[in-house]
Amino acid sequence: MYIEYVNARVRGMKGDLLSPEFISKLLVKPDMEAIVNELINSPYKSDIEKASVSCSGVSCIEDALRTNLLRTYRLIFSLVHGEKFEKYILVLVNKWDVHNIKTIIRGKNIHLPKEEILDCLMPAGELDEVTLIEMMKQQDIKSVIDLLASWNYKYAIPLTRAYPQYQKTRDLAVLEHELDKYYYRNALRRVSGKKYADTIVLDLLSTEIDIINLKTTFRFQKDHVDPKVASDYLLEGGKELSIPTLLQFIQAKNTGEIISSLASTSYSFLNEIPSELVKVRGQSVYEKELERFLVRKEVSVSRLDPLSIAPVIGYLAAKNVEITNLRIITRCKTELMDEEELERELIHV
User: Fold this and answer.
1) C-alpha angle 317/321/324, rounded to 5°?
2) Which of 11, 80, 92, 124 has minimal CB crowding within 10 Å?
3) Could you give the CA distance from residue 45 to residue 126 in angstroms, rounded to a whole number?
């Protein structure tokens, strides 16, 4: 079976992931130069060497990580292209398209230089680098949307629908929520079958919707947003938390009351976070733990049926974690964060 070949290739790629010991070595490096030198002795060698020709320090590492991740996604695409399980990978990587569109319209909104926007993009989805650069050349958000519409690109639909409301409010959340709503509605529809792979991806997507909704709920409760207004910004399709339940949470007296209400759900672990930590860091502590929970769930998929697409999904999640951790290390080092605090910022799977 071809899936056996794909998973064999992925097992080989998984062997190139950095070990916890290697990450620990990076934590004690004194500066960017030392981190770069360490990464040269890793599977990132060619990417670091290529990036070092035109930049140095953090920029060198960021460019190398982006190149490496993009090459990884392209290889996975080439392996699954034309196969019946390709749709599951497309559903997951389409999130990069949404990320890239959001990044471009955010940049246009605050008039960022094209170069700065480009540094934040990851052309790992259906929108390739040439397409994204053409989008960045547009004068404003409306021009970006019109360009997408002229290409008959699917994400022009929610953006065109939401743009009149954005014109009135100048609130980017209007556009971004419509993008998310459109993405998740279509993603859920594509994995609504009864195949094993459908159930895996559906579980991940519905959990992700729960987490996005919970994070939104925390913020709305804190800002005393009217539940009638809030309902327009919550996503359908969550795994455990219905929209009526979330609207009740928004009316809670405080965040602690919401956390207590989660005791019988998969998100009960939030009750274990020390109150002292919450007092120091606020709601961001809950948000970060929810994100870590989702990442661990995504990575753990690789341990499911080896004759399914599960190992590929799990590997991509693990690769994303690795890239994220390397970015955290390099950025925190530039801010002279101590080793213990840096360690707390990392995602452990």
Assistant:
1) 135
2) 11
3) 27
Is 166 strand, coil or helix? helix
Query: Rounded to an integer, what is the distance from CA 145 to the centroid of its chain?
Result: 22
Q: Whose structure tokens read 């360690």? A: 343
9-34 residue pLDDT tens: 999 999 999 999 999 999 999 888 99
Find, among 187, 174, 153, the residue nearest to 105 by Cα: 174
d(CA 241, CA 263): 12
Angle between helices 243-250 and 196-222 (to 10 degrees): 20
Distance between CA atoms of residues 160 and 346, nearest Å: 38
- CA–CA gap between residue 295 and residue 293 (Å, rounded): 6
1-83+309-349 has which CATH code? 1.10.132.50
What is the pLDDT at residue 20?
Answer: 93
Distances (CA, A) of 72 to 9, 43, 65, 297, 344: 12, 12, 11, 21, 27
Note the pTM of the prediction, 2 decimals: 0.93
- pLDDT tens-place string over residues 273-284: 998 888 888 889
What burial class does residue 344 get, using C-beta atoms within 10 Å of its C-beta: 0-12 exposed, 13-18 middle, 19+ buried? exposed
Q: pLDDT tier at 1 (50, 70, 90 boundaries)?
A: low
